[in-house]
Structure formats: C-alpha cells, structure tokens
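Workshop exercise sheet. Pairs work together: one partner reads the sequence aloud, the other fills in the structure field after running the prediction. Swap roles for the next sheet.
Pair: D.N. / O.F.
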Amino acid sequence: MRPGLDPHLRPWLRAAARRRAQTRKLIARRRRPPRWLLLLGALGPGFIAANAGNDAGAIATHAVAGASYGYRLLWVMVVLTVPLFLVQEMCARMGAVTGKGLADLIRERFGVRWTTVAMLTLLLANTGTAISEFAGIAAAAELFGLQKLIVVPLLGVMLWVLIVRGSYQRVERGFLVMTMVFFAYPLAAVLARPDWGEVGRNLVSFPVELFSGYLFLVVALIGTTITPYMQFFVQTTVVDKGVSTHQLSEERLDVAVGSFFANVIVLSIQIATAAALFGRGEALESAADAARALTPVAGEYAGVLFGVGLVGASLLAAGVLPLSTSFAICEAFGLERGISRSWQEAPVFYGLFTGILALAVLVTLLPIDPLALLLVVQVANGLLLPVILVFITRLASDQELLGPYANGRLSSLLAWGTTLVISALALTFLVVSFVLPLFGGTAAS
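Structure field:
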C-alpha cells in the first residue's frame, strides 16, 4: 500500500482489489473453452491424415480380411497402431521444426537423383491408390444397379471440373458427411454378436502364416494403413497450418488420437464382416457382400448405406490424391504449383493432375473386378512403402536438420525397426508368392 494514504481507506482499497481479482478470474473462466473443445481444437493434420487412409481400398481390404480369415488378422492392426503413430509423428515434427514439406526436405538433403527415386515411388503408389478410389466408385455403382462405364467417367469429369475451377472445397464437406456412415461399423460389430473371446485372443496373439493368400492380405493391410501419400499430406498440412515447435505436444496428441481412432474403425469392419460372413462357406466377392456386415444396423438398407459411404470416401480421396501428388512432385523440383495458378504458369502441375485422374478412370473401365483391383493396389502400396520410410527415418534422425528435435535412440530404433519389419514382410510375400513356386515350393492360400 502506498505510504501517506489514510489508514481508514486501506481496508476499502483491499476489498476493491479482491473484487477486481475475482472479476478477472470470472471473465477468464468464461472465456476459457471447455476441455472437450480444447481437445477437438488439437485434432488437426494428424487426425485427418490417419483417417484419410480409411478410404475405399481400406474398407475393401478389411472386409476381405474379416470374411476370408475371420479374426485371425486382427493382430495386424494392433501392431500397426504404433508404427502408424510413429511415422505420422516424425512427419508432423519435421513440418513443425523446418516449416517445409517432405518433398522439399528430400530434395535438400538427398539431391535430385534420390528425389527422383522418391517421387517416382510416390507417383506409382498414389496413381495406384487413385485407381483404387475409382474402383470403389465402380463397386458402389454395382450396388445401385448402375453401369460403371457411365458413372466412373461422369464422376471423373465432375471432380476435374470441381478442382480446376477451385470450387472443390464447397462439396468436400458433403463427401465427408457421406463417409460418416462408416461410423456404423463399430455398432455393427457389437450387434453382430461376434465371439468376443476369440476376438480378444486374436488381438493379442500373432498367428503369422506363411501362405501367399494370408501374406497378401497382411501386406495389403500395411499398405492401406500407412500409405505413402499420407506422410506427404500430414507434413504439408502441418506447415500450412503454421504449427510451431511450441505446439508439438498438441500435435503429438492429434496424431495419437487419429491413429487410434482410425484403427478402431477398421478393426470394427474386420470384426463385423468376420461375424457376418466367415465360416459360412461364402467368400466376399462384391461390394454387396461387404454391405451385408451392416445388416444388424441398417437391415434391408445396408446396401444403400454402404454404397453411399463408399461413394463419399472414394470421391473425397479421388479428388485429393492426384492433387496432392502433383503438388508434392512440383514442390520437389521447384516447379510452379497450386490451383490458384493458370495453366500457362503451372503446366506440369495441371498436366500431372489431369494425367493421374484420366489414367485412374481409364484403368477402372477395363474389364477387371473392382474388388480385386482394390486389393492389388493396397499390396502395391505395401511393397513401395519401405522406400518412403527410409527417407522419412533418415530425415527425422538428422541432427543437423532438426537439432534437439531429431529422433532419440529409442525413436530411431523403433523407426528403423518398423522399416525393416515391413520390408521383411514385403520380401517374404514376394518369395512365397513368386519365387518358391518356380522351384516347386508351395504358395497355398
């Protein structure tokens, strides 16, 4: 209290100061958002990227896994939850520390030749995934009794116009809403009354089987869970969002929640289809078969519900994939990019985008079973993934690039271990499926 004040005024001033302090606390409490809102605010690039992988290919792969092997492949998703978080976290961390995309860093640290290798890998993987999205559209068309020869080109042209005209974001929310139907799978998994004891045993055991059909699906599950494009996407989004090193803890939470939530959804798909189809002498041969797993939730409308969700998931990814691929490749080689540019300013960007979209449509129109095409693409992703993982792990362990934010010993060990295990599984699949049969070995499914 200031000297010279009337002693009679001091109690009154102290009371006034206490009231002001209480008022400030009340205002701060009212301005502070609830905890659940703070959590939602933390969910961003990591959550979106992890769940973007639950597209048409993921839905088909997990449905086939459940229908063909029951609960015997559930362990794969439990094991993949940690690598998914690890890889996404490394990319998010690199984006926050350097303020640069993954393609940019690959060019800076490894030079043009290795950048070309990385970009060719990305181009092959993403073109295949774009094809799988249109295969998903073709499968959905079958559910509604429509011809893919009409539906696929029509929707391909629609996507091209929406994106080139810059109005794609206006309908993006609509596609997202359509994909919300897949939240019905956790409910379907419960209502289908699976053998929860068997589910639990397969979640914690690792019954690896050296048969080509089994390994085919293991590699496909890896390829559809940790897809190459997701890593470029999450790092670019972190940079665009302006995430700084001060927000790394929130971003790690974002990635962790996204990885866990995405895998809960696909585990539910496996459990629901296993309960509905496995052991009944019926193979999953079409989208209609996959839709039957939703029967406990939607009854006779299961096919419609599944078809709507499949169209939404496929269209959303089919629009984003060619665009992000063109952006990453142009970023890597320092070329003009972005839909805000004109064709004259960014011919390579628009040419790549249009070419990938057109090729995806044309391949889908070939007389190929959409479900088989979806699975083959996920396997291809799994085989190409180790190439991208090597670049990511080396960059994330680079002390000169990231300083104190580089991988520690444990993180490096886990990252290289993930890369080696995935590479070993991919190599084992190739040997069992293609090499052993040449020498009279078995490749039984």
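Discussion prompt: Confidence is low (pLDDT under 50) at residues 26-42. What would you look at next?
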